[in-house]
Specification:
Layout: E1 2-4, H1 10-19, E2 26-31, E3 35-41, E4 64-67, E5 80-84, H2 97-103, E6 104-106, E7 116-126, E8 132-137, E9 142-144, E10 147-149, H3 151-161, E11 164-172, E12 179-186, H4 206-212, E13 224-227, H5 270-281, H6 301-315, H7 321-326, H8 330-342, H9 345-350, H10 352-359, E14 381-385, H11 390-402, E15 406-412, H12 421-434, E16 446-451, H13 462-471, E17 474-477, H14 488-509, E18 512-516, E19 525-529, H15 540-543, H16 547-564, E20 569-574, E21 577-578, H17 591-602, E22 604-607, E23 612-613, E24 616-617, H18 618-630, E25 639-642, E26 648-649, H19 650-659, E27 665-668, H20 669-681, H21 690-698, H22 702-706, E28 709-711, H23 717-722, H24 732-744, E29 756-757, E30 760-761, E31 773-777, H25 782-793, E32 797-802, H26 805-815, E33 822-826, H27 832-845, E34 851-854, H28 869-897, E35 900-905, H29 918-937, E36 943-950, H30 964-970, H31 981-992, E37 1002-1005
Parallel strand pairs: 1-2, 12-13, 14-15, 14-17, 15-16, 17-18, 18-20, 19-28, 20-25, 21-24, 22-27, 31-32, 31-34, 32-33, 34-35, 35-36, 36-37
Antiparallel strand pairs: 2-3, 4-5, 5-7, 6-7, 7-8, 9-10, 11-12, 23-26, 29-30
Helix pairs in contact: 5-6, 6-21, 11-18, 13-14, 14-16, 17-21, 25-26, 25-31, 27-28, 28-29
Amino acid sequence: LWLNGEVVTTDLVRRAMDALPETRLLNVYSACETHETAVGDIRTFVDFDTRVCPVGPPTDPEHTYVLDEAGNRVNQGDSGELYVGGKLLARGYLNLPETTAKAFQPDPFAGDKDARMYRTGDLARILPNGLLEITGRVGGMIKTRGYTVQPGAVESAIRKHLAVRDCAVVAHGEGLERQIVAYIVREKGETRDRTIPLVDEYGYSPVARRALTDHLAHYMIPSVWVELEELPTHGVSGKVDLKALPAPPSPRSPRPAQKKKKEHNIKVKTETVIQLWAASLNMPASVITPKHDFFDLGGHSLALADLAGRLTKTFGFPVPLAPLAGTPTLEGHVSAIKAARDGHTAAVQADLPAVLRADSVLPEDIQGNGTPMRALRDAETILLTGVTGYLGAFLLKNLVDSTDAQIICLVRFPEPVEDCAPAGMARIRKNLIDLGLWEDYLLERIEILPGTLTRKRLGLAPDVFDELATRVQVIVHAAATVNLVYPYAALRNANVMGTREILRLAGRSGATVHHVSTNGVLPPSHTGWCEDTVIDVDDVPTKLLDGYGQTKWVAEKLVNEASRRGIPVRVYRPGTISGHSVSGSTNAWDLINAILVESLQLGRAPDVEGWYIEMTPVDFVSDAIVTLANHTNDTEQTMYHLGDPAPVPSGELFASLAKLGYPTETLPWDDWVALWWEKRGNRKTGDDPFTVDILRGGMPSVEVLKSVIVLKDGKTQPTLDKYDVPRPKMNDGLLEIYMRHFYARGWLSRPPRREQVNGVAKKCRKGRLAGKVAVVTGASSGIGAAVAAGLAKEGAHVAVAARRTEALEGVKKKISVYGGKVLIHKTDVTNKAQVESLMKEATEQLGPVDILVSCAGVMYFTMMANNQTDEWERTVDVNCKGLLHCLSSTVPGMLSRGAGHIVAISSDAGRKVFPGLGVYSASKFFVEATLQALRLETAGSGLRVTAVQPGNVATDLLGMSTDQEALKKYGEPTGAEVLKPEEVASAIVYAVCQPPHVAVNEVLIEPRDEPI
C-alpha cells in the first residue's frame, strides 16, 4: 500500500496495520515538480509515541534542504520549509512564468551557478536517523489569542479520541472573534471505544470538548463543530479543499442598551445575559442554559474580559471581572450583575475573613516526624511543582545542574493516569525549548508524575501517594494558579488546598519543603516590607485586593503552621520576575513586558506619577532559591525576599530605552490607553502579537500601575552575598539584553542601538582568543575563577571544572556575558576517569582543547614532626596526581594537532622551600620538574608550557590547614599587601595571548614586600 500526497499520522498507520496485517506499507513523498523525493517502509521505523510518521530517507540527500525563513539551513532535527534540488526537477509551469519563478528558485547550495531548487511549501525536518518528516504546510498554522495552533495536531487528536473517520480544522473570524472550527465526518462503523461527537444544529458539542480536554490544550479545542457527510476534495489532486468548506453557524450579537437608566431601576434579565454570552463566546444563544458554565462552553480569560465589557456597556454600570470569574455559571453571572448594580460586592467581601481563618487551619493529621532540614545536594529524590511555568522551568534546570538527585516533576492533568507521562514530558520539553533551556541530558534526570494540586493527595491513588512519600526527601513547591482578576474562591483549590496536600506529603515523608510565595501577600508599599512582615487576617480583604495574593497569604499561613509542627520549611517571596539577565529569555505573558513593547510600538509612553517598575531577573530568583536550599546551616531564618528593594521610576526606564534607540513621547495614562485602542487594540488582523492580546484581556488601571509592592532584603541579600549570588541591577545593560530578546522574538521592529563613540556604533571586541577552547580546573573560586573570566573576556570558549557545581554556576553566569560558550563539568582531578570525561565533553561541545590551565590545588601548613599524613596524601593526590591526569588527557591531542598551551599553577614555594610547607613545597617542586621535562621533550612540536609561580594570594587555601602549631609559627600574615586572584589571572592571560612563536615559560609573581 503506497501512501502519497498527505501527512501520514501514526494513528492512520496503526489502523492500517490492524486492517491489513500482512500488507507492506510504503510512505512516499513526491510531487510532479520534483518526482520522488523520499520513500520508506513504514513498518521499519514507525514510532507510535509521535504524532506523524516519517516518510523515509531522501533519495538525493545532497539536494534535499530544510531552510528557515531567511533561506539558511536549519540544524538537524529543527523544522523549516522543504526545498528540493537536483536534476529531476520539472522545467516549470506551462505558460506561467511568474508562478515558475516563485516556485523554482536559484540553488545557492549547489556548485552549478545554473542549479535550481523547488520550494515545496511543506514544513519538514531531517531526523537524527536521517529520515525526512513532513508535518504540514507552511502558513497552515492558526494564530488565535496569542497562541499558535497546528491544525494537524488537533485533527490527529480528534481522529484518535472521537468516533470520526475524517476531519479538517480551520480558523474562522478575526481578532477576538477568531475561532477554531472542526469539520468532521463521523465514523459509521466500529467506534473502538471512541467518543461519539454529538453536534447540535448550532455547532456546539460539549461531548467532544470534554473528550478532548485531557489531550489538547484549552486553546486548541475547537469551539465550533460542523458535521458533514464527506469533506470536499479538489477535483484534480483529490486533496481536501479547505476553501470549499461551508461557513460555520453565525450567532447573532445583542444590541447594547440604547440609553442609560438609573442603576437601581435596571432589570437584569437572564435572556439579555444569554445574548451577551453568545456574543462573547461566538455561539448561538439557543444552546445556553442557566446551568451552563462559561468556561465549559469554550470561554477563556480574554473572552471573559470581553463579556465584562459588553455587560458594562449594555447595563450602563461597571460590572467587575472578579465576581464573573468566581461564579462562572449563567446563574452566577446574573447574581454578580445584580450585586454590582446593588452594591453587594462589599457585603460579600465582608465574609472573607471567616473563610480565610477556616482555610488557614492545617489538618491535625499533618505533622512533622522529627526529620531535620535536608540540603538539596544531599537529596536523592526531589519533587518539583510548577515546572511547566516560567520560574519552575529555570528551577528544574538549576536543580539538575547543581544536584545529583532524581527530579520528580508534578505535571497537571485533570484525571492523572500513568499514560499521561509522555504528554507531561512533552509539555516540559516544549516549555524549556521556548525558554532556551532544554538539553537532552535532562531526560535522564526527570521523572514525570501526572497529578493535580486541586485534589486530595495531589490526585494520586492512595498507594501511589504513599509510595511517593517513601522516596521524596526535598520538595520545591513553585506551582500556583496566577490570575490577578480572579477572586479567592476561583483560585482556592489550586493555591490553598494544593499547598495543604504538599505539606501532607512532607509530613509523611519527612521531606524539607521550599515554598515559593509572592510579594502579593503584602499590600502595596513604596517604602518596602521587611522579611518578617505578615498582615493580619482582618486586613486581607481590604489590603490584598486580588484573589491570588489572598490565596498565597493563606498558603503561607499553612506553611508556617507546618513549621511549628516540626516540618522543615523555607519560604521565598519573589518580586516581579523578569527575563534572564544573560539570555533575556522572558515570560511571554508578562504585563510589564506588554506595556513596554506596546509603548515602543506606539512611540508614546504613559506618564504616570508614582509608577515604579520592578524587574527581578528570573535567573537570580532561581539561583537564590537553589543556593539557599543548599545551605541549611542558616536555620534561624525561614523567610527570604527575592526582589529589587529599589524599583526604577517608569520615567527613568523609558529614558534608558531612549538611549538604546527607542525614543518615546509621554502621554497621560487615559490618553495613552485611548491611543492604544485606536492604533493597536481595535485591529482585526488575526495575527496580533501577544502583547496586544494581553492588554485587550485586561488593561490595568492607573491605580494598579502605582500599586508596587517593594520587598526589603536586609536579611536576605547578606546571606546571598556570602554565597556569591549577587542581584543584577536594573540598568542600561540589562535593558539592552531584554530589548535584544524582544527583537529576536519579533516583538520589536528593530534591535537596540549599541553604545556610540563619536557618533559611530561601538562594535563588540572580538578578543585575542576568539574561537579558542580553554579548560580551567579548580575554577569554582580564587585564581581558577579569575582565569576563566579573563580567558572568556578575550573571546575563548571555556570549560570550567571543579567539585562544587553550585559555585561553577555562579562563575558561568558571570563569564557568559562575554558571549562565548561556557561548559560546566563537575570534576575531582584526583579521579582520572572524571578528568577524561571533562576533556571528552569539552571537545565534543566546544571543540579541541587549545589551552589547559591547571588551577586545582590544596595547601596545608603542617609541621613535619606532627605527622599530618592525611593532609600530606591529599596534597600529593591533588597537586601531583591531579596535574598528571590533566596532562595525560590533553597533551596527546595537542601534539597530534601541532599546537596547544599547557599552563599550571605552581608556587614560589616550588622554587624555595618554606618551613611549615614542606610537603606543599615538595608538590610544587614536582610540578616544576614535570613542566620542565614536558617543555624540553616537546620542543619543536608547537606545544607551549608555562609554570606560574604565585606568592601569597588572597584565596581560601589558608583556611584548609588544621595544624594549629604550624599555622601559629609559619602562617601568620606579615602585613604585606597580598596578590588578588585577578592579578595572577592577568599574567596567565598575557602568557596565552602571545604569538605562537613566543613562549612564556615561567611567571614568578609575588607581593612586592614578600620576595623569595
